[in-house]
Amino acid sequence: MPSVLPDGDPAPLDGSLPAEAMASAAGRALGLYVHVPFCSMRCGYCDFNTYTASELGHGASRESYPDAMSAELALAARVMGEAGLDPRPLSTVFFGGGTPTLLPAEALASTLRTAVGHFGLVPGAEVTTEANPDSVTPESLATLAEAGFTRVSFGMQSAVPHVLKVLDRTHTPERVPQAVAWAREAGLNVSLDLIYGTPGESLEDWRTSLEAVIEMEPDHVSAYALIVEQGTKLAAQMRRGEVPPVDDDDHADKYVLTDKLLGAAGYSWYEVSNFSRGTEHRAHHNVAYWLNQDWWGVGPGAHSHLGDVRWWNVKHPAAYQQRLDAGLSPAHAREVPDAEARHLEDVMLRVRLSDGLPLSILAPEERERVAGLVADGLVEPLPALKAGEDGERRLVLTLRGRLLADGVVRTLLGF
């Protein structure tokens, strides 16, 4: 089942934001995340806030959901205006889930038009939807492209049938290149998402998946190590001994192979788990997350970040829709992280980027620990530290450092 919401302070029923926390929003880009919480079936590894038709219960449906999204977009525009935030057009829009493309393409297109009507859209903005390969058609992709979507991210996960079966994926390997071709014909950029480390997946299986991806020539590739979350079907199977446990060494071998094969095919890493052909094809919406820009999250369980305030919506689609039907904010709770928490986040997120962690972010005692990381081969030698466009010196992970990125963060912060 989906993971639980975090604790926090009560969120106002009208959605209002504390004025004193809004000053830091000036100059930040504004993104929009739209959560579509529907899936045709629950994958065994998934603990996202998603629901099959049988799990929705009363008070929520796919048919009524577009109206709920539109209602929250109107609330967002009102709340931001009342908080005194200057109007900012959207720099990125991302429809995630779940499977957004289980909704009719016109419903997604209409939601995008509503968002643009409230906020505007930066020229050339990235507008993405996630999709399963078997949840699209040539016609649906063409409708999305005509509405202003620029990019589709397909949940491929693997090109090997027995791996897809363990993951409970509904598509066949043959469907992926077909969906990619349709997206190209519609004029959309393409990202392919992969998962490595599935129980029973050999290194050669993983090579097969990578080679299949390279043959399709996507603009962007995400490759994530399988994390088995408590409460999932896969976690229960492991407890019962039905599938073998996750192996960290196996993950490392597969990541090294990923870097080697994708690098040789012209893809550069720009975040530990993400690779693109040129900076223009990076997932700019996700980059905004990693750089702590602002975004509003629409949908049940969606998280938002404006200025110094973070909040998250009620979890179940029925509760979400009931709040909005009553003219109330769907926000469940919120927090204003203190300086220490924001510093930890900055280090944890920015160290994962190939653009590097600016040394100025680190406290003096943290900078003193960099030499030890260089000696251990976890970050690039000091003379080679990357300079950003502003000329600032930055810490950049080596390949070994990417494998041990969490350890690098702990060392820098003295944990």
From TrEMBL:
Protein name: Heme chaperone HemW
Predominant cellular place of this UniProt entry's protein: cytoplasm
Naturally occurring in which organism (per UniProt): Galactobacter valiniphilus
GO molecular function annotation: 4 iron, 4 sulfur cluster binding; coproporphyrinogen oxidase activity; metal ion binding
Gene3D superfamilies: Aldolase class I
Family listed: Belongs to the anaerobic coproporphyrinogen-III oxidase family. HemW subfamily.
Biological role: Probably acts as a heme chaperone, transferring heme to an unknown acceptor. Binds one molecule of heme per monomer, possibly covalently. Binds 1 [4Fe-4S] cluster. The cluster is coordinated with 3 cysteines and an exchangeable S-adenosyl-L-methionine.
GO annotation, cellular component aspect: cytoplasm
Keywords: 4Fe-4S, Chaperone, Cytoplasm, Heme, Iron, Iron-sulfur, Metal-binding, S-adenosyl-L-methionine
Compartments (UniProt record): Cytoplasm
InterPro entries: Aldolase_TIM, Coproporphyrinogen-III_oxidase, Elp3/MiaA/NifB-like_rSAM, HemW-like, rSAM, rSAM_sf
CDD domains: Radical_SAM (cd01335)
Domain Radical SAM core positions: 24-268
One GO-annotated biological process of the protein: porphyrin-containing compound biosynthetic process
Keyword check for S-adenosyl-L-methionine: yes
Top-rank lineage group of the source organism: Bacteria
